[in-house]
Amino acid sequence: MTDFFANIPTITYEGPSSTNEFAFRHYNPDEVILGKPMAEHLRFSVAYWHSFAWQGGDPFGGQTFERPWFGDEIGLAKLKADVAFEMFDILGNPFYCFHDADVRPEGTTFAQSQRNLEEMVDYLAEKQQSHKARLLWGTANLFSHRRFMSGAATNPDPDIYAYAAATVQANMDATLKLGGQNYVLWGGREGYETLLNTDLAAERAHAGRFLQQVVEYKYKIGFKGAILIEPKPQEPSKHQYDYDVATVYGFLKDFDLEKEVQVNIEQGHAILAGHSFEHEIALATSLGIFGSIDMNRNDYQSGWDTDQFPNNHGEKALAFYEILRAGGYKTGGTNFDAKLRRQSLDPQDLILAHVGGMDTCARALKAAVALFEDGALEEARAKRYAGWKSPEAKAMLSGSLDQAAQRVRDQGVNPVPKSGGQERLENLWNRFI
Ligand code: XUL
Ligand code: CO
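# D-xylulose complex -> structure
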């Protein structure tokens, strides 16, 4: 045991009227809703990078946090893992996620970095044996080190493609070894800063082939989890090739991967792409590629990816409603890709941030479930499209443009506009949040 979280109790459910800061008011893991425990609906995960690796820097200033595990030695990486699993025990989150760079010190050669990763994977495997948290997904950091400044799989230098391949291979092996349920690829530098020096067609082709190789490797090693792409339109790159769900789907179709790869959708990334979170989830579901979510929120003034903890359950309820309509998670979960503000220095801030985030999501889930069970919204939606149930309407879709048009000429079809009833449905929605 470390003393990092000394005097912080295990967080338990005390109900909505509790005034105890170190308690859940809404997240009651064992409460059964829609036939399964809340914990299984939400599948919470903690992001190693924000909570344990990030030092509090922003573009105008460096480290603000002081943590006893900051440094490049393997012993410190193990201390970091000790504290991480202590936090998972306190919160009771069933999952965590990491990049290689979050858990191991970088070596001076690839071989040394890989040895460090393997040593830490063994250490994490031991931790998993004596604690409850499991790996939701693993991923490779292909964006922080300067070697990746012009991209990984899309780098103009083929040696970097090779380095990216070696890195992803090592991370997929690590994910398999730890029983990870998914493997994520987020292409922070897979894009460009300026078209003036970019062969866009070549970069896109290389990214497609790389992803096919990742899928081939998944089968080679017998990894049973899902491969997920995490869309984001920009930042750090001016333009990223995995812009949003629609763009990713077009890319997957192009490379025959739409049955092999799903998406990990992040709230802040959806907003940056000019969409809502629920739009991205609904679209992914309709395309059959919904996988998992990165839960956070952006600040509405700053216009960049602030990765804050969610605190507005009404907003998140719309997202959870879409997840329910998708039939819930399969291998996915709710990963808090969220970080403290850089002035939140204390160990208890880390705990309280997650308590608030988990409660916000639980409350959102309950609202979404209540509306789902009420059924009025789905009834209204079904009624709006009821005309398409008629054989005449269906025939139009299997016939030609001529045949569809014929109904107007033969039957004198003269449509009467109907109300979309948006405000009525918004009022209905407000009754549940
Ligand atoms: C960056 C981001 C990443 C991915 C994993 O915006 O969301 O942390 O989730 O690489
Ligand atoms: Co993310």
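# post-check
The first strand starts at residue 12 and ends at 13.
The first helix runs from residue 38 to 42.
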